[in-house]
Amino acid sequence: MQIQKHIVASIEYTLTDDGGQVIDTSEGRGPLTYLHGAGNLIPGLEADLEGKGVGDAFKSRIEPADAYGERNDAMVQDVPRDQLPGDMEIEVGMQFQAQGPGGVQVVTVAAVNGDVIKMDGNHPLAGVTLNFDVKVVDIREATKEEVEHGHVHGAGGHHH
Length: 160
What we know:
Layout: E1 7-16, E2 22-25, E3 32-35, H1 43-49, E4 57-62, E5 76-80, E6 95-100, E7 103-113, E8 116-120, E9 130-141, H2 144-149
Antiparallel strand pairs: 1-2, 1-3, 1-9, 4-9, 5-8, 6-7, 7-8
């Protein structure tokens, strides 16, 4: 069996940037299990997994356009301190949910300058080339319910 649309795949992976810094890994947590073809992974990695089988191991270099996109300076803006929770000390790196034109989005505090908070609506990995070291450890057919819901249920997946 090979990875294709509506297949549940489990992968072990390590994600690094171009400097070799580990960004994320499945090591110590168990494999990542996902429904292929449902948009649950970044497009570049999902495309590179297409057609792979159990035991396949490979390296994948994903450019920003096929990952979290390029950085967009228009998504960085200054917000008056009084628009944020008053009882909270605001620190660089904190994340908040904000209502944007496309719905709810996560924004990150990029800088605190007195009563002005610089908020960044870019994904933290926007503009970053991603390097994956991947091994496919399991593949199975998705259930009808998983296909309908667009994600994996049970072990390694979502529980309703």
